[in-house]
Amino acid sequence: MREQVNFAVSDLSGRSGVAPGQIQMLQGGSVQWRSGALGCPEPGQFYTEALVPGVLLTLGVDSKVYHYHATQGGQPFLCPDARRQPPVSGGALD
Asked: CA 82, 86, 91 angle in degrees (round to 5)?
């Protein structure tokens, strides 16, 4: 999961212009997503309806919170708050 955290921090740094050292890891860990949408469904898309092992990373910059979703070992992606859904279980720091 360390590589996933590093990727998410680097991605957020590039998006926000904030130095990686100023990005805080608020929470992260293994989760079970409800479907292949990984808790971040896009309108008009269809997803597998099965539990998917994954990762949820919550990063913070100042008072703003960002959520990165991924499969277990997959590349994390930023999930906008408007599409974000909670996992079935998990999410605590590993």
From this structure: 130
